[in-house]
Structure formats: structure tokens, C-alpha cells
Design goal:
Shape: globular
Largest sheet: 2 strands, antiparallel
Strand content: under 5%
Order of helices and strands: HHHHHEEH
Helix content: 55-70%
Number of strands: 2
Structural class: mainly alpha
Number of helices: 6
Radius of gyration: 19 Å
Length: about 150
Amino acid sequence: MMTPEQRRAHIRERYHSDPEFREYVLTEGKRYIAKVRGTKLYRERRLRNQRKWLNQPGKRERMRELVRTWESAHRDVVNAHHAVKYALRVGKLVRPECCSKCGDKPFPRSDGLSRLQAHHHNGYAKEHRLDVVWLCAYCHRQERGK
């Protein structure tokens, strides 16, 4: 029987040497992670850990300070995010069911809404605030990394 370290090393080696296995991990692994993260048990555990972390002395104030600093430095990004949220609420924008890049339909959130994310592909300038492409988290990470 393999130890967990040996198993990880074996999977890592197979991932880098076998293109079919790599493709399987990238497609099915993405779906599995989305499925696990969509469970109530996962959400409860994550929230419990976040609360425990935030309740440490000084953490909450430090996080607020960091968020304020980031938001003041990136005012255009914050305004674009608020514009998209408002447009969704009033019906100017409609969140589609599937990713516009890969076509995947992500698992819905606990409130029934889609997990698709708005990607501001033309930047955050005022004239492009509502010019978004709807992507799943995986495709959004890839686009942001370019």
C-alpha cells in the first residue's frame, strides 16, 4: 500500500508524462472540485475556519485596512464591479447559464444563481464597465493570467 506522499508523487509523475491523463484531470477534476465546493458541508467548514481565523486578535481590523487600501488604489475596478452588480439587479445584464469560453454549466450557488463570473475583457474604464464576458472560475483564472 502506498503512503499519501508516494501516491501524490505517482499522480504528479503520471500527470506530467501522460497527456490523456492530464486532460482527464483538467476536465473531470474541475467538475469534481466544483461539486465538492458546492456542498453544504464544505461551505460550513470553510465559514467556520474563516470565522476562527478572523476572531484572532487584530485580524479583522487588519483585513479591513487591507481591503480599504486595495479599494482606494483600484477605484476603477471597484466601480466596474459595482456597475455589473447593479445592472444584474435591475435587469440590464443577464447572467447566462453556461460559460462563454468552454460551454460548461457550473453547479449553482446555494441561492440558486449561476456561479459564472463577469470578466471585463476590455478593461475597467467607464465606457467598458458593462462590457463583460461570462466565464466559469477556471476559464476566468486562465483569462486573468494572460
